């Protein structure tokens, strides 16, 4: 498999009232095309920050991040936005739907921004894929949390992204609804051969991925050696 995403010595530092805080410390990681990768670790370990770097939603303070042979650090904000729109789908814990738009309009928006003439038809197909064709004309306030997350998932998948990033997508849902969302996410990955990177606190969800990377204190946690494990 070829690498679709590569981080080399990526550092993320943010300024605060207490001074500069280093969130991620020299992360090096390759993500292979078509794989499923879980980012796990305790709260505050840097999982979501790492996902934001991968998606170009945060800029690395130093180091390099390459996605689909493009250096994200060298792109302008407009170029990054276009690149994400054409190549990436992002699903957050909070659904981030536009409240004044229907489900259909929310899903169609990134397609329209990309100049797709078939935006509405494509959006209808995506809603059908997540079982919400009957909710196309409903607004977010008229839908349950699980339905809103399915709309968000349809929106993320509508442009047929090569890379799908999901940050605790079941965090605001009950267990049953969360399992439905994850089944959909992995089903879409399998059908479309999309590379999936998933941030989760759930061991059960992490175990569904082919690879798990554990973070601790902003660093990739090295696995125990045989000697350490037996100590």
List keywords for this structure.
4-stranded antiparallel beta sheet; disordered C terminus; alpha/beta; 6-stranded mixed beta sheet; 10 strands; Rossmann fold; 231 residues; 35% helix
What is the secondary structure topology, with strand pairs?
Blueprint (H helix, E strand, L loop, with lengths): L2 E14 L2 E14 L3 E5 L6 H8 L7 E6 L2 E2 L5 H11 E4 L11 H11 L5 H11 L15 H13 L5 E5 L7 H18 L2 E5 L3 H4 L4 E6 L2 E2 L5 H5 L1
Parallel strand pairs: 3-8, 3-9, 6-7, 7-8
Antiparallel strand pairs: 1-2, 1-4, 4-5, 9-10
Helix pairs in contact: 3-4, 3-5, 4-5, 5-6
Describe this structure in words.
The protein has a single domain (3-220), classed as Rossmann fold (3-Layer(aba) Sandwich), CATH 3.40.50. It contains 8 helices and 10 strands. The chain has 231 residues and is α/β, with parallel strands linked by helices. The strands form 2 sheets. The chain has a 6-stranded mixed beta sheet. Mean pLDDT is 90; it is low at 223-231.
How many domains, in number, for the residues?
1
By secondary-structure content and strand pairing, the structural class works out as alpha/beta
The succession of helices and strands, N to C, reads EEEHEEHEHHHEHEHEEH
Mean pLDDT: 90
CATH topology: Rossmann fold
Helical amount: 25-40%
**CATH homology-level superfamily:** P-loop containing nucleotide triphosphate hydrolases
Per DSSP, the total helix count is 8
Estimate the global geometry from the Cα principal axes. globular
Strand order of the largest sheet: 6-7-8-3-9-10
CATH architecture group name: 3-Layer(aba) Sandwich
Total beta strand runs: 10
Strand portion: 25-35%
What's the alpha carbon Rg, rounded to whole Å? 18 Å
Q: List low-confidence stretches.
A: 223-231
* Cα separation of the termini: 36 Å
CATH class: Alpha Beta
Biggest sheet details:
6 strands, mixed
